[in-house]
């Protein structure tokens, strides 16, 4: 996700509220929830020591944004395709 958005990997683990960092962090949480069996608490712990409720909010936010922003949906699908190849 960081590579796709041209961000340093450590940036999504920070408390930064810059839009590009927040969106990358939310997408990382969304994809982790969607593609793994990890609990929201574990995902939150791995991505910047966030609370499980933050992970749930991120997943809902990204899901809702995808419904109206087809560019975002395409970006997420592209990232997911790359991840599945690994």
From TrEMBL:
Any one Gene Ontology BP term: DNA replication initiation
Cited InterPro entries: Chromosome_initiator_DnaA_CS, DnaA_C, Trp_repressor/repl_initiator
Record-annotated Chromosomal replication initiator DnaA C-terminal domain positions: 1-62
GO annotations of cellular component type: plasma membrane
Gene3D superfamilies on file: 1.10.1750.10
SMART domains in alphabetical order: Bac_DnaA_C
SUPFAM superfamilies per the UniProt record, alphabetical: TrpR-like
A Gene Ontology molecular function term of the record: DNA replication origin binding
PANTHER family in the cross-refs: CHROMOSOMAL REPLICATION INITIATOR PROTEIN DNAA
Protein name, UniProt field: Protein containing Chromosomal replication initiator, DnaA
Native organism: gut metagenome
Taxonomic lineage of the native organism: unclassified sequences, metagenomes, organismal metagenomes
């Amino acid at each position: 996700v960081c590579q796709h958005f041209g961000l340093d990997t450590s940036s999504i683990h920070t408390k930064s509220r810059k839009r590009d960092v927040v969106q990358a962090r939310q997408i990382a949480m969304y994809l982790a929830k969607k593609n793994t069996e990890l609990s929201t608490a574990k995902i939150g712990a791995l991505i910047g020591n966030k609370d499980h409720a933050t992970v749930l909010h991120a997943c809902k936010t990204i899901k809702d944004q995808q419904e109206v922003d087809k560019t975002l949906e395409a970006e997420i699908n592209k990232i997911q395709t790359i991840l599945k190849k690994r």
